[in-house]
Amino acid sequence: MSFSSKSLRLVLLFTITITIFKPSTSLNLNFISFTETFSLLFGYQNILLSNDDKSVQISMNQWARDGSGFVSRSAYHHGLFTASIKLPNNNYSAGVVATFYARNNAFNRDDEIDFEFLGHIPGEEWVLQTNIYGNGSVHRGREEKFTLPFDPSKDFHNYSILLNTGRVVFYVDGLPIREVRKVEAMGDDFPSKPLFLYGTIWDGSDWATHNGRYKTDFSHGPFVAGYAGFVINGCPVIDPTQPTQPDCQVSLPDGISAVERSKMQVFRRKYMTYSYCYDTGRYPNPLPECEAEAPDMQPAEPPVVLSPVEPPVSGASRRFRYI
Ligand SMILES: *[C@@H]1O[C@H](CO)[C@@H](O)[C@H](O)[C@H]1NC(C)=O
Ligand SMILES: *[C@@H]1O[C@H](CO)[C@@H](O)[C@H](O)[C@H]1NC(C)=O
Ligand SMILES: *[C@@H]1O[C@H](CO)[C@@H](O)[C@H](O)[C@H]1NC(C)=O
After folding, report:
1. In CATH, what number is assigned to the domain containing residue 205?
2. For the chain, how many structural domains are there in total?
3. Domain presence at residue 313
4. Which domain of life, per UniProt (predicted)?
């Protein structure tokens, strides 16, 4: 990469990151250029970029069963990251996993914040799974699963990850659906490294749908996921040798307003189908952030667990291959 195009990229990122963002506004900002921000990760032949360089389709089919994906050129110390996503609309998409996530697995110790969309058999719906890991805590999954109030394969919807000091928030169309506050006892299980952003589609046959009971059937393919726009309001790592964050003007929501919080609770009561905080078979002692220190992240009543015999399995460490 030449110096000039690198500088251009940094200028672009700075242009974006100085935008002031207030918690009460919607998550709208101008969509950014795909190629300035991302590079292709795998399955190049299955990635289709739009002419205006603002959207991309990634797919998986019987000739390219590994799927495809992209990754951001920069890692971000913190930020609010949005992708507008339309999931494959095949009648049968069991086994298919489409993702938007933030990750850094340096030293083989994963830090991750995940949106994972899990495909379905006919008559069922896409399931949204969220999860976080810190410093390689991949054996302490913090999965929560949701159905959605809309069909995510019919239209584009906005999925956002807020990473701020001591706080991760997941948003769907601007509505917070999950907040993870760093409590002391979580220790390094809370992500701490700067994170790269990823979008991938891949074959999760062995776990994604009803715990692997329904596999990917490529005769129903191709499976195409659209990522129509990206909004990155974050602090990129400018100098990787600097462990602390650079002087970055980005302004992020500092918390969830009372109104947003009550909407979040309504959403969670209605659409959450699984939370690790209530899975006493898996965690006889709930993980520390599930306790009273962060009462707001729990719904008022235990959620309806639709598939109690099937604890969610995560695809951590298997969600892509470098080629
Ligand atoms: C997603 O965000 C864009 C711009 O930020 C907005 O125009 C659009 O209406 C949003 N979509 C939904 C479904 O909320
Ligand atoms: C999906 O199923 C519906 C109803 O069974 C059918 O009408 C439609 O053609 C199917 N679509 C595809 C892409 O197979
Ligand atoms: C992460 O885990 C490693 C290995 O257990 C440990 O040495 C390190 O101190 C931990 N914390 C961070 C922030 O890397």
Report:
1. 2.60.120.200
2. 1
3. no
4. Eukaryota
Q: How far is CA 79 from CA 95, 96, 128, 208, in A?
A: 31, 28, 22, 29
Report how far residue 264's alpha carbon sits from residue 40's, in angstroms, rounded to the nearest whole number.
Answer: 34
Dihedral in degrees, nearest 10, Cα atoms 281, 287, 292, 296: -90
Residue 18 placed within a domain: no
Strand partners, 306: none
In the residue annotation, 112 being an active-site residue is answered as yes
DSSP symbols for 40-53: EEE-GGGEEE-TTS
Report yes or no on 173 lying in a domain.
Answer: yes
Query: Is 293 among the catalytic positions?
Result: no
How far does residue 90's CA lie from ligand 2's centre (Å)? 8
Distance of alpha carbon 104 from alpha carbon 134, whole angstroms: 9
178-215 per-position pLDDT tens digit: 999 988 899 999 999 999 999 999 999 999 999 999 99
> With a 6 A CB cut-off, is 273 part of the ligand 3 pocket?
no
Q: How far is the CA of 83 from the centre of ligand 1 (A)?
A: 10
Output the pLDDT for position 250: 80
H or E segment and range at residue 143: none
Give the integer Cα–Cα distance in Å for 212 and 239: 42
**For the chain, how big is the Rg over CA atoms in Å?**
19
Instruction: Tell me how far apart the alpha carbons of residues 14 and 8 are, in angstroms, rounded to a whole number.
Output: 10
pTM of the model as a whole: 0.84
Domain that holds residue 69: 27-297
Q: Is residue 249 part of a domain?
A: yes
Pick the closest to residue 322 from 38, 42, 39, 40 (CA basis). 42
Q: What b-and-e string marks burial along 274-289, b requiring 16 or more CB atoms within 10 Å of the CB?
A: bbbbbbeeeeeebbeb
**pLDDT at residue 318 greater than cutoff 60:** no
Q: Is 66 exposed, middle or buried (0-12, 13-18, 19+ CB in 10 A)?
A: middle
